[in-house]
Amino acid sequence: MEEKLMAFINLIIAERSEQENQSQIEELKSDFSLRDDLHLSSLELASLTVLIEDEFEVDVFEDGIVTTVGEILAIIKGKG
Amino acid sequence: MKAQKGELKFVNYTSMSEENLTEILKYRNSPEVRKWMLDTSEISVKDHFSFIDRLKDYSDRVYFGVYKKDKLIGGVYAVDIDSSRENCIWGFYLSPRMIGTGVGLEVEFEFLKILFEELGMKRVSGFVHESNRDSLEIQDLFGFDTLSQNDTYIKIALNRTNWLSLVRDYKTFKKNILKWKKN
Asked: Is the dihedral of CA B92, B53, B61, B166 positive or negative?
């Protein structure tokens, strides 16, 4: 699950990196902030939720605010 | 007016509780929100409530609190509503806690739906701070055109034809973002 989430985030970063020189994430920590550490824009966050929803069939933002990697993982695990 | 749009509820300021109106002023006055506004000064509590008292007398502007799961998350507004020419200027802001959570995209989608499909606007315009890259990216996604620009703000507009070419519900719209980003 963590690997899949990291792959999704790296996919989004890769799309961004065509314009900005930004390296891929090699380790995903639970306390990573989606905004401050991963620098995901609103549009990128929306893209991430779509990828997660397609893979895990859960809308991570449905029930409230999600700001960290750990919160996403908790929602996916909770759904399972 | 109260409108349920997807998972969001829009409640006219004139129907909101004093507690929620005080809360929304805190959002508006927070540095994270004010820095993107045309008027970056703080609004006093007195001026805020005086303004809301007068709102019912105006037909050229509407202000709504936005609720998700019955929790206030921000405010949206349309001003300079010209009923004969069917255009207006719109904007929105979120609770500082909600900034960067992606919910702004949903708020914008559902409010544009109200403006075009319930209030019958043919064109909506807005202003975006030129360094607000997050917002500019979203306006591009919606198909807004740039009308003019000064050193600080970009004036943008979207017409109903372009709006109607988008999908009709937020969930499907969100799924199309990935395709849009690839193009």
From this structure: positive
| Bridge partners, B74 (sequence order) | B66, B94
* H helices present in chain B, as ranges: 18-29, 31-34, 45-55, 103-117, 133-142, 160-164, 170-175, 177-182
Report pLDDT for B90.
Answer: 96
DSSP string, B102-140: SHHHHHHHHHHHHHHHTS--SEEEEEEETT-HHHHHHHH
CA distance B109 to chain A (A): 13
CB B10 within 8 A of CB B106: no
Nearest to A46 among B97, B98, B177 (CB): B177
Residue B181: predicted pLDDT = 67
Q: What is the pLDDT of residues B47-73, one digit of tens each?
A: 999 999 999 899 899 999 999 888 999
Q: Which of residues 142-171 of B touch A (CB under 8 A)?
A: none
Cβ within 8 Å, pair B100-A35: yes
Give residue B153's pLDDT band: very low, low, confident or very high (50, 70, 90). very high
Which comes out higher in pLDDT, residue A21 or B121?
B121
Q: CB–CB of B100 and A34 under 8 A?
A: yes
